[in-house]
């Protein structure tokens, strides 16, 4: 029974490329296989092609949802390979490289080189596709496929190095040391003490304005602690008209706090007395300034 997976658009396109490249790789190896002469290379080609066929079927089953295909790791045919000596022999490498004029000129070096290129391309394509995969199983499948291609490429390179087919260039030891020795391990520094005039940041108030606003909406509101009453301010000089400020600019400002303290000491009700004081002052101001209502209609 087929079970469909939810695939993203990029994921579908990348899977299409990976599967198409896998088909091309198998077809190319089949074209090259009849030209193999060396017995070791023939066994290597057969071993890798069998694995690639099984891997392709597993990918198709996984993508189409037919079953959970296994992403098995690649096992080289020869577990113990001769390590690279580090001293390449230029005499073993061909002096010239040029395309063949006829298919009959294809030799073991051509087959191994083509096989190496197939695996390098497969590793890059599958790794790139895994970055676009949204389904966890498909992502792991592509990552394992990229690793498999890398192992197969390394196996082919080892064969080519032993046979003298891969002209590996090596820097002199002094040059390699000059380029790589400056890189040293990262040493974790000890935390330095902060200057006395620098206060540590409050973690609860960290983040930008958006983070603080979001935190303010998420956290419950905490009532602020009562603070001392501020000193009274005569707001008439701030909010009154310019004419009023010119007339009363040099007049002394009543200290309402002192009046309140005196009333409280005398045992009187501050609110009522203050209201009476304000009304008397307003009445005196009306006697000095004629009412503007008298001019209405004239």
From TrEMBL:
Protein location: Spore coat
Main location: other
KW Methyltransferase (keyword) present: no
Keywords: Capsid protein, Sporulation, Virion
Stretches the record annotates as Disordered: 268-298
GO biological processes: sporulation resulting in formation of a cellular spore
PANTHER family assigned: SPORE COAT PROTEIN F-LIKE PROTEIN YHCQ
Gene3D superfamilies: 1.20.1260.10
InterPro entries linked to this entry: Ferritin-like, Spore_coat_CotF-like
The protein, known as: Coat protein F
Lineage: superkingdom: Bacteria
Family named by the database record: Belongs to the CotF family.
């Amino acid at each position: 029974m087929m079970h469909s997976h939810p695939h993203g658009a990029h994921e579908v396109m990348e899977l299409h490329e990976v599967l198409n490249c896998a088909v091309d790789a198998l077809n190319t190896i089949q074209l090259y296989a009849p030209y193999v002469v060396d017995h070791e290379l023939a066994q290597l080609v057969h071993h890798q092609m069998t694995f690639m066929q099984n891997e392709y079927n597993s990918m198709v089953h996984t993508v189409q949802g037919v079953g959970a295909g296994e992403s098995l790791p690649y096992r080289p045919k020869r577990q113990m390979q001769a390590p690279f000596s580090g001293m390449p022999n230029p005499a073993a490498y061909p002096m010239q490289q040029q395309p063949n004029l006829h298919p009959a000129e294809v030799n073991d070096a051509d087959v191994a080189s083509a096989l190496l290129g197939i695996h390098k391309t497969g590793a890059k394509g599958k790794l790139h596709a895994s970055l676009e995969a949204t389904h966890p199983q498909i992502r792991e499948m592509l990552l394992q496929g990229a690793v498999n291609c890398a192992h197969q490429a390394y196996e082919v390179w080892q064969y080519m190095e032993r046979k003298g087919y891969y002209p590996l260039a090596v820097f002199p030891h002094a040059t390699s040391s000059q380029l790589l020795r400056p890189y040293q391990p990262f040493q974790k520094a000890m935390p330095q003490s902060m200057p006395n005039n620098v206060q540590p940041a409050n973690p609860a108030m960290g983040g930008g304005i958006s983070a603080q606003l979001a935190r303010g909406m998420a956290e419950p509101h905490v009532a602020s602690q009562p603070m001392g009453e501020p000193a009274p301010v005569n707001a008439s000089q701030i909010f009154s008209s310019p004419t009023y400020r010119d007339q009363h600019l040099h007049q002394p400002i009543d200290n309402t706090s002192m009046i309140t303290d005196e009333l409280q000491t005398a045992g009187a009700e501050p609110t009522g007395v203050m209201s009476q004081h304000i009304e008397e002052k307003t009445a005196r101001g009306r006697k000095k300034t004629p009412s503007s209502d008298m001019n209405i209609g004239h």
